[in-house]
Amino acid sequence: MLHRLFRGRFTFKVYLLLGIIAIIVCGYLLPQYKIYPIAPVTSPSSAHSHASRHISKLVTVVFRQFEDFENDIAEGVQSFVSAYPNIAILVICQRAQYPPFQFSSTNETLKNVKILSMELKLDSSPRDLDPLSYISTEYVLIVPDSSRVSRRVFQQMTIAATTYPSQAIAVAVGNARLSCQQIKWAYDDWTLQYSRDSSKKLCDAVQGQHALMIKTSVLHTLPKPFSFPFPESLYLQTAVKNVKVQILDSKFAAGRSVLKTPAAKQKSSRRLRDYRTALYKDIGVKAVVKEDGRVQWFGCKRETQRCFPPVQRVPSYVVSGRNTPPCCRRNIRRTTGHVLRALLQAGARCWLETTSLLGAVVNGDLLPWAEYAEIGIHASDLSRVSWLQRGGADNDGFVWERATKGHYYRVAYSATNRVYVLILPFTARNGTMWPADWVLSHQRDFPERHLHPLAQIQFVGRQAPAPNDARAFLDLKLGPNAVERSERIGPRLLYP
């Protein structure tokens, strides 16, 4: 058969030879054109290929969580430089690093490593002190102290970040067990609440030693993305922006152990506490509700001044669109309970007055914007209460005093913390209760029948005496439908 083939026409021989050459070229010189079975193309595979080729151009590594007096930053930087020689690395220091890191950023192998001090210098420009001005990549990988990179995990994070660009991606470092948290920031009530999310699907914050990859454009939307305590402050800011965090089931290796001595641990804990207190003061957090329900207070105490300045007609917090700071509300409650016990034990006829009665009817507590508590008293019973006669600090530290202008009394939480309870005397004349010579815009005379007999109502965690028809009493003092209007228009009912 081959003999017949080679005896054929010359043109056929030429075509055959060209065909053989074409097969050789396609099969060996152009392997990318080999024929493979067709497989579906998925976005993660595309992202993986893209990340593997361009990860150094896609991500900047940032070190922010470390102590200046003892850290593992030099070895952590070397870990990333060894794995990715061309990757950009930014080490952000709170002040000029001392003792210095055990490496020099002028070294040619560390040419992409930048050490940034956030210490204020008078010749600095705003750009000099802005870490984001040193980041030109699309993503940022923020790693804590004592971390060692894993190329495989780094690529997994990059794939996840590019697949879900609206989310941040977290992985554990070493043997850390990560906790997924949800954050509720109640601006009106000055309260921050954390809760645990066992599903670990999408978190507001992550607790535990971890690395975090986030899109640079997201950081540009935050007021202070790298402020201390880090990353707690970062998660508060991203939670407000509704940026969720996804935890991957991978981890970076841990580096050298640091802060091993009790003195070093104590120093680090003290700094963390100071940073957290300063942060909460800046953003107006007075109470933090922990995952287990415990409340941690950052507002005023008996030994400190109250959280708002002297009131000139309208409290400052009402002007800011907020309610009474929760620590002040707690202290007013304590003072109210103390005053009611003292008055009732002395046999004085007393009752909840306007603003406090309104709060008791609405929710059994102080009004959310209450500046003080109000208690009415029969003027003829003042002599029964010894502390109203002599004044001063009682055995429990509460300060009793008579107003210099007007015939009324105040009981302050302490000599330093001046949140207080008003005691307002009324005189009975011809079936009407008349206020003494003090002036409050919402106070006026009322029929004595509202006090015969007195009723009981729930208030600040106890039963308190009150007028027998609370709603009618409030309508008389504040106008028709006072309760409904209070629920609808809030503090404008009392501070128009």
* Main pleated sheet: 8 strands, mixed
Helix content: 25-40%
Regions with little confidence, pLDDT below 50 for 5+ residues:
1-8, 25-53
- Inertia-based shape: elongated
Radius of gyration: 35 Å
Q: Please indicate the percent range of residues in DSSP E strands (runs of 2 or more).
A: 15-25%
Distance between the first and last residues' Cα: 110 Å
Structure annotation, total helices: 14
Residue-averaged pLDDT: 89
What is the total tally of β strands?
23
Kindly name the structural category: alpha+beta
Organism: Danaus chrysippus
Keywords: Membrane, Transmembrane, Transmembrane helix
Transmembrane segments: 12-30
Domain FKRP stem: 48-290
Task: Describe the model.
Strand 17 (399-402) and strand 18 form a beta hairpin. With 496 residues, the protein is an alpha+beta fold. An 8-stranded mixed sheet has the order 3-2-1-4-10-6-11-5. Strands 14, 15, 16, 17, 18, 19, 20 and 21 form an 8-stranded mixed sheet that branches. A 5-stranded mixed sheet has the order 9-7-8-12-13, covered by helices on one side. The radius of gyration is 35 Å and the shape is elongated. The termini are far apart. The chain has helices at residues 2-6, 10-29, 43-58, 73-83, 151-163, 216-219, 232-240, 262-283, 316-319, 326-345, 354-363, 386-390, 470-478, 482-489, and strands spanning 59-65, 88-93, 113-117, 139-144, 147-148, 168-173, 179-186, 191-196, 205-207, 210-215, 245-254, 287-289, 295-297, 350-352, 373-378, 392-393, 399-402, 409-412, 420-429, 432-435, 446-447, 455-459, 462-466. Helices cover 31% and strands 23% of the residues. Residues 48-290 form the FKRP stem domain. The chain crosses the membrane at residues 12-30. This is (African queen) hypothetical protein. Keywords: Membrane, Transmembrane, Transmembrane helix.
